[in-house]
């Protein structure tokens, strides 16, 4: 017969990370994020920008080329002409590059914020000497995570290469006609083919990036998994030791019981069941809007209330329906419910008449 030693599994990290551990990891910069998602969104945003501003780019490029091969060729090589030529090139370059840089910055920031949210920490870039350990470095190089990243890169390269090859092979007829076109027509055809290839690649990379993000989220949660003992220890740190909490509650109940029993002699009447329930009622006349419940209990506690009431000459009145209703509807320190005013008033009137006779 096989005997299982459950202690062997005590350290198994099978439990989901607690919110506290997730928050601690977040403050240290350990957040699930995909480096593929910003790249894919930046590529997609750049392609859309070029598509929208393609006419502007072509018009300015052709204008600059025409200006360069006509006016600029007649320049004398002087300091003033060289400076002017430099600023012309710089202006044209800025017209082409600045919109792309703007898209890269905005889309890149949005992609990172979408994954990480608003958090600032320098923990990930803090120097750690253990990272210089060559053995640990070899472990990271030949780890499962590195192998998965390699497979992802090979998959991306393979799929992008196939899309580019398939797109080019489908446009061979248009490529053969480029020799008979003018410069504007050549740029238009090449631009359309290039846009189609990049558009397909961007959508493919975006799909892979979304898949990678969910994988990174799963892998991050798996790396933070906890053992049952770790969950118990964290619960003790956050909620307190259950044994100590139990003792505290027990003492609180004992103190509340003592206070309740100390208030029984102040009661005007104790309404009983007669043996199972006991409710002590106090009414101070003009000082109170309505009678209040100063003590209540069942069975053993009810017997203690009745005993203290007898010792302090508090009148006991047997009324089974009223005692059960008061116990269920009124808490200690509360005024009696309005619907029981008449019944309690009759009991108090009986008690006052009885005391006057005595």
TrEMBL record:
Membrane-spanning residues: 40-65, 85-114, 147-165, 185-215
Top-level taxonomic group: Bacteria
Keyword Membrane set for record: yes
Keywords, sorted A to Z: Bacterial flagellum biogenesis, Bacterial flagellum protein export, Cell membrane, Cell projection, Cilium, Flagellum, Membrane, Protein transport, Transmembrane, Transmembrane helix, Transport
SUPFAM superfamilies: EscU C-terminal domain-like (SSF160544)
Membrane topology: Multi-pass membrane protein
InterPro entries (UniProt xref): FlhB, T3SS_substrate_exporter, T3SS_substrate_exporter_C
Main location per the UniProt record: membrane
Signal peptide (UniProt feature, chain positions): none
Location(s) in or outside the cell: Cell membrane
Family of this protein: Belongs to the type III secretion exporter family.
Purpose: Required for formation of the rod structure in the basal body of the flagellar apparatus. Together with FliI and FliH, may constitute the export apparatus of flagellin.
NCBIfam families for the chain: flhB
Protein name: Flagellar biosynthetic protein FlhB
Protein species of origin: Effusibacillus consociatus
């Amino acid at each position: 017969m096989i005997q299982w030693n459950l202690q062997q599994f005590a350290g198994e990290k099978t439990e989901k990370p607690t919110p506290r551990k997730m928050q601690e990891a977040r403050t240290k910069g350990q957040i699930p994020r995909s480096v593929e998602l910003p790249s894919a969104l930046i590529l997609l945003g750049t392609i859309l920008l070029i598509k929208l501003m393609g006419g502007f780019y072509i018009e300015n490029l052709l204008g600059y080329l025409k200006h360069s091969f006509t006016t600029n060729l007649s320049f004398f090589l002087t300091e003033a002409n060289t400076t002017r030529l430099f600023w012309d090139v710089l202006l044209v370059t800025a017209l082409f590059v600045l919109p792309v840089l703007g898209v890269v910055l905005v889309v890149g920031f949005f992609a990172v914020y979408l994954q990480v949210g608003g958090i600032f920490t320098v923990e990930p870039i803090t120097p750690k000497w253990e990272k210089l350990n060559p053995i640990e470095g070899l472990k990271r190089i030949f780890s499962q995570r590195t192998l998965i990243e390699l497979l992802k890169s090979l998959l991306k390269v393979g799929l992008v290469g196939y899309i580019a090859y398939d797109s080019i092979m489908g446009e061979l007829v248009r490529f053969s006609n480029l020799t008979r076109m003018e410069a504007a027509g050549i740029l238009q055809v090449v631009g359309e083919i290039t846009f189609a290839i990049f558009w397909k690649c961007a959508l493919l990379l975006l799909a892979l990036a979304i898949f990678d993000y969910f994988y990174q989220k799963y892998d991050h949660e798996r790396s933070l998994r906890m053992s049952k003992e770790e969950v118990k220890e964290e619960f003790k740190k956050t909620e307190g030791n259950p044994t100590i909490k139990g003792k505290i509650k027990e003492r609180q109940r004992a103190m509340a019981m003592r206070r309740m029993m100390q208030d029984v002699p102040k009661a005007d009447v104790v309404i009983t069941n007669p043996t199972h329930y006991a409710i002590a009622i106090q009414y101070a006349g003009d000082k109170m809007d309505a009678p209040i419940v100063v003590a209540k209990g069942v069975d053993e506690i009810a017997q203690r209330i009745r005993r203290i009431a007898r010792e302090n000459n508090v009148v006991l009145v047997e009324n089974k329906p009223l005692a059960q209703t008061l116990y269920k509807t009124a808490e200690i320190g509360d005024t009696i419910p309005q619907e029981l005013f008449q019944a309690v008033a009759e009991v108090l009137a009986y008690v006052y008449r009885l005391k006057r006779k005595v």
